[in-house]
Every structure is written in structure tokens, then in C-alpha cells.
Amino acid sequence: MTVGQEVGLGELTQWLLATSRRSGMTDERSQPELVETWHSRTATLHHFTWTRSGFPDVVVKIHREPSDAAVHFQSMEEVARGLRAAPSSDFAVVDPLALSRDLGAVLMPYVAGQCLSDLLVFGKWTSEKLRNDVLEIVTNCGALLARYHGREDVVTEDMSRVAHDRLRSRIERLLNQEVVLGDLTASGPVVKSYRDFHPGHIIMTEAGKVALIDPPIEIRYEYFYRDLAFFSYSLFMTLVDPRGLKISPMRAGHRDSLVGAFLDGYTATTGHPLTDDDRFFIDSWEAFYLTKMLRKARRRRSYVRWAYYYVVIQRRLRGLKRTVTRRLRHASS
Fold this sequence. Notes:
Phosphorylase Kinase, domain 1; Aminoglycoside 3'-phosphotransferase, Chain: A, domain 2; 2 domains; 5-stranded antiparallel beta sheet; 4-stranded mixed beta sheet; 51% helix; globular
């Protein structure tokens, strides 16, 4: 298949049927039935069930760039391998099932359950039980990320230098000026960054476990701050979703406690508490992501929804920038 060529449903179904029968996921009498389809910027995902009961549902992800499928398959294998190396009864490991380089397709299990982002947006936060459940889930998310970061990968000096340069450039772009880090030390470990660790990729399975789905195609080596900050940023953006505020206006006020639970889960698993410098770099990364989203909201603020985001992001970003600037001045004085 060439770039930009779409895969026909008939061709896809034939591959799915042959692959599933060959691997024992179904039998000769069962046929796949399409349940739903999702579209993203880089791929199309199809959820299939089977005409005979007793066989697990599956998802086929068709990449717009066929060459991305092999990279994605390898990424899923690495994530599963890393989590399996540090097993926990709280986590479900999602293994990729099959790859078609010709179709640009990855076959994976369908993970039934509730997405954390849906729980954060549509859950009724007046319920104390729901709030406690969410705190426990978010704490487990921190532990899950720590286990992923804790794999014994070889990090070279070049990788560390690139990670440090990228970190510094983000702070300079955030403040729109060159910065002197002074006595601030990026001493945290350089890890294989997940890069897309957010509530939309966390599923609470029907068995009550946390499952991490759809890892990114490209995984870079970054300071561990990056993934912590991205999850913190994503929590904020999810909690201020106007659809959720109509249900429970108080939900946005729980951002600090949720981030705190997430970081507690992370540090309890690594055994290393966060230093003041660590928190500075986490704040810097989060402010960088908020700045990018603020620019997007500014371009679209003629729409009511984006005008709302522009106001709430600006308010949050203003406080973070003050914190980052104050710490930089103190470090370089």
C-alpha cells in the first residue's frame, strides 16, 4: 500500500480473519463484525467483535503512513515488556497481536472499561466515593509511569546532552528569552519518554485494573520531568472541559489534589522524592504545553468554547510563569 492509499474494509476483514484463525483467536465458523470506527490525525481505528461468542474483541489501527505501523508495533511491545518486567496486580499489560506492513495495520486487543478522561469529565464529583476512586486511579497512574520509566535502558552521554538542550530550549521558548539556569540542576534521570501519557490513554478495565493503551509511535529519551508535566497539563485541560463543569462545577478545584496523588504514586514507586529543582522543571514543561495550547486558543477564540479555554489557560499560565521566573532569578543571582 502506498502513502495516502486507504485500506478497503473488505481487504482489512480478510486479513483480520486469516490472522485471527491462524493464531487461534477465533475459529472457522466465526466472522468479524465491525462495531465502530474512530478517526485521528494519523490513523483510523476499527473495533471488531465476532459472530460467535467466546472470542475477544479486537481493534485494528490503520496508519496513514504505512511505515509507522511497524514502529508502533515495536513501541507497544516495548511498553508491554517494560511493564511486565515490574509486574503489579493493579496494571493490565496490553500486548500487540499482529502486524501487516502491507496494510500499515496493527492488531491489538480491545480493552473494555472506562476511560479516565471520561470519568474526569462526566463523573459526578459531588460523590465522595467517586472522588476517592479517582484519587486512587491517578495514584496508580503515577506508579504505572514510574514502572515504565524504571526500565534498564542504556542512556548515553549524547542522549543526556540532547535531553538537556531540549529542556533548556523549552524554557527559553516559554519565556521568549535566553535563560541562565545558574545553580538549577537537571539531575533527574533521562528515561525513554512515553510522550503521550494522558487520561485519554488510561482505561479502567472491567477487572478493576489500570490499562495503558495506544503508546506513541516515536519514543524519545527525555528527562523524566517531561512525562510528569504532560500528565499534569492534561489533567488540567480535562478538568476545565466545559462539558464537565456543567455537571459538577467544583471539579476544576481538585486539580492540585489529583496532581499531588499522581506525583505521590510516582515517587512512592521510584523511592526518590521530588526536589525543588525537579518541581521547577516540571512546572516549566507544563507551562510550555499551556503556552502552545494558548496560541491555539487565541487563533480560534471567535468560537465560544475556545474563548473560554483562552481565559482559563491564560489564568493558569500566568501563575506558572511567575513561579518559573522567580526561581530562575533566585538561581542565577
